[in-house]
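Reopening closed ticket. The problem is back. First fold of the pair:
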Amino acid sequence: MIPLLLMFMLSLSFSQTLVLDIKKASQIALENNRELERVKREINSLEDIFLSEKEERFMPKIDAFVDKEGMNLFSEILLLDFGNRLALIESSRLRVQIKNEFLRELERQVKIRLTELFMKLALAEKDAEVAREEMAVTYVRFDRERERLERGLSNRVRVAEWESKYRENRAKLLKAQRRYNETLLEIKRFLGLSLDSDVEIDVKSLLEFGVEEEKTIDDRLILKKIENNYLVRVKNLEIKYFESRAKEQKRVFYPELYAYFEVKNRFGSNYDNLKGSANLTLRLPLFDGRASFYRFRSFLELRRAVEIEKKDILETLKRRALVSPYDWEELVAAYQDAVTYDNWAMENLDLSRSNYELELAFDLGYAMSTKTDAERRVMRAKFDIILYLMRLYNMMGIDPLKVFEREPDIFKDKMEEL
C-alpha cells in the first residue's frame, strides 16, 4: 500500500499546490511524526523481548567445551516449568501492551496538536487582516493630518499621534504575518513535508463546525466511558504487570524439567571413543536465603502504589466529567457573546456604508476593521469549543477527530435537567 504522503508527493507533479484539510493532514502526520516513529521502534524492541522469553522454552542451548583431552558438545532444553517462566512471559507481553496504549494516546495527541496548529494559522491570518485594515485607516488619517498641518489647520502633536498609531498597526500586521508564516512552517515540519513545498491549509471544517447551543453535555455518558481513558487503561495493565513480576519471584518449590544431551570425543582416538548420553533432570529449588520473598513483596508494594494512583486518576476524571456541563455553558456563553458582537458589527458596517461620505470615510474604515475583529472573536470562541470537545473525547479514549462527525453524541437536551 502506497503511503499517503507519497501519494500526495506524486500529485505534486501534476499540481503545484498541496491542499490539506485536518483529516488528510492527520493521516500524513501519523505516518511521518518522529515521536510516533520512535515509539514504534520501542514497541518492536519489546515485542522481540517478548518473543525471546516465549520461545526460550523448548529451544535447545548448545555449548562446546574443549580441553587438552578432547571436546564435549552439551545441549540443554527446558521442557516444562511449573512457576515463574509463564509469569516472565506474561510480564513481557504486558510491557508491549502498555507501550501500545502509549502509542495510541500519542496518536490522539498528534491529532489535537495538529488541529491547534490549524487554528493558530487561521487566527494569525485573521489577525493580519484586522491589522491591515486598521493600518490603512490610521495611515489615511496620518496622511490627512499632515495635509492639514501644511494648511495650518493642525499641529505637530496631532501628526505625531496619528503616525504613532499607524506605526503601531503596521507593527501588528508584520507580527501577524510573521506568526502566520512561522505556523505554516511548523505545520510542514510536523507533517514531515519539505519546508519550501507549496501547501494550502483548508480550515473549512473548523469554521463550519456547528455549536450545540441549545444542548448540554451528558456527564453520565462521560462517566460511563472514563474507564477507557488512557491513564486508567495503563494503570490496569501496570497492576497486572507488577502482579506478574511478583509471581516471577516465587522460585522456591517451583520445579523445572530439563533434558540434557552430551557428546564426548577424545583427541587422537580416531573417533573410537566418541560417546553420547542423554538424561532428564527435575530441578526443585528449596531455599534461596529469603531473597525471592523480599523481591516478591517489593513488586506487591509497587502494585499497591499503582492502585492508589489509579484511584486518584479516576477521581480526577470523575470531577472533570461532572464539571463538563458547566464548562460547556461557559464556552457557549462566550461564543454567543462573540456572535452577538459580530451581529452588531455587521449592522454598524451596513449603517456606515449607507451614510458613506468623504468626511465619514474614516468611520467606514473603522466599521470594516471592527467587523473583521468581531469575526476573529467568533473564530476564537468556536475554536475553544472544538479543542475542549476534542480533549473530552480523548479523555474517554475516543479519536478526537470524531468530534467533527458527532460520534458518539455526548449531548442531551437541556429540558432533561428540569
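Second fold of the pair, where the issue appears:
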Amino acid sequence: MNLGRLAVPAVVLGVQVLLLALFVVDWRVPVVLTAGFLIGVVLLDRPVWAVGGMLAARLLSTGTTSFFTIGKISIGLFEPVLLVALIALGLRAVFSGMPLWRSWPWQPVFLALMGWSVIGLAWCTKMSDGAKEIVTLGVILGTATVILAFLRTWEDVKVAIWAWIAACVSIGILAIFGDALGLTDYGSQWQASASGGRETGLGQQPNWFAMNLMFVVHTCAAFALVQKRPILRWGLLLATLFVFFSMMTSGSRGGAYSIVIGGMLVALGQPLFRKWFLRLGVAGTIFFGLAAAGDLGDIGKGLNRISSNIDVLFTRDIRGLNWAACIGMFNDSNGLGIGPGGYIDNLQKYSDWLYHSVYRYPHGIFWGQLAHGGVVGVLLLVALVVVISRMTMQTIRDTKGTEAEVLAWAMPASMAGYFAWSFVEFSLDEKPFWEWLAVYTALHLVARRSREPGGTPIPAWTFSLK
C-alpha cells in the first residue's frame, strides 16, 4: 500500500474533524480559520503584505474592537490577521522550501523567558492566569517569527515601515473624524480620561494610545531625510508632525518624555540628525506653546496636563504602593517570584485599597518581572536589554554610509525612550514594542547579509537636504 497517497486524504480528513470540533465550541472560529487559509493562499506571492497587514492590525486593534473571547483571551482584529500570516508562512514553506524558523540575536533570551514562565506554573497562584501570560508570550514569538521570515531584503523592511506609518496616520485621522461624529468617545471607559481632555484614540487607554503612536515618530522623520522625491520627503515630515500632535492629545507624560529621550539619543549619535532635531524642536516648542496658551482643543488640553503634572508624577501613592507590593511578593517568595499571572490575587495582602482600585498592576516592566519572575526573571530582562543593545551597535556599524543608517539610529531611539518610561509604566508583553523590535531585527539581519561576500548591498545614502 502506498502510504504517500493516503497522506493527503488523511490530512484533509483531520482538518475537517478539527473544524467540526471547533464549530461546536464557537462557530466563528472555523469560519475565521477557513477565511484565513484562503487569504493565506492569496498572500503566497506577496508575503510582505501579510506583514504589513499584521502590523497595521496590531496598531489598530484595541479592547473595544474585540469580536469574542476564548477563556480569558480576547480575539480582536489582530489575532485573525496573525493567523492568516502564519498560514501564509506555512504554505510558503511547504511549496517553496523556505525555512519556518530563523535565528535572531534576542531569540535565546526570549525563549528562556518563556521557559521560566512555564516552569513558574508549578507555583503560580492561578493556573489559568499563568497560562494566559504564556499564551501571550507565544503570540509574540509567533509574530516575530512571521516578521523575520518574510522581511528578508531592504525593500521588505521599507514596506513594513511604510505600513506602520500609514497605520499611525490612519489612527489619527479616524480619531479626529470619530470624535467629530461622536463615534469614538470612550472617555467613560477609562478613569484616566473620564474628566475630559485626554484622547483615547480608538478606545485605548490614553497612555497606551500615545505609546502606540510614539514608536514611529523618530523613524518617520528620519525616513523623510533619505527620500529623493520632495513630495515623499515633505509628506513624511508632515506625517511626523501629525502623528506627534495626535499622540499629544492623549496628555500622556510617558509619550512626551519618551519622544524627548529618543530624540536626544538620535541627536547625540549623528550630526545631521542633531541639526534637524533642533529645528523640529524649536518649531514644536513654538507650536506647543501657542496651543497650550490658547487652549487649542485636545492638543492644548493634553499639553497643559503634561506640563502641569510633571511635579506630581511620583508624589501620589499609586506607583509607590504597587512597587512596594512587587518588592513584598519578591521577598515573600524568597526571590523566586510568584510565577506567571496572579498579581491581582496576591495584591490584597499588601494593599487592600489598591486591590479594589483600577490601578492594580505593577506599573513598570522591571517591577513586574521582580514580582513574577524573581531573580531569574530580572536577570533575563537585563540580558535581553544587553543583547538588544549589542544588536543595535552592530546594525549601526553595518548600515553606515547607506540609506538604512537613518533607521539604524531612529528605530532603537524609540525603543530607548520606551524602555526609560517602562520603569514606571507598562508590562513585559505590551504592544507594539515587540513588533517594532522584530522589524528592527529584520533590518539587522539584512544589514549583516549585505556585508557578507555575495550579499546584496544596501544603497548608499545620497541625502541632499541640508
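Update: turned out to be a display glitch only; the data is intact. Strands lie at 68-70, 73-75. The chain has two domains: 1-100, 103-466. Please close again.
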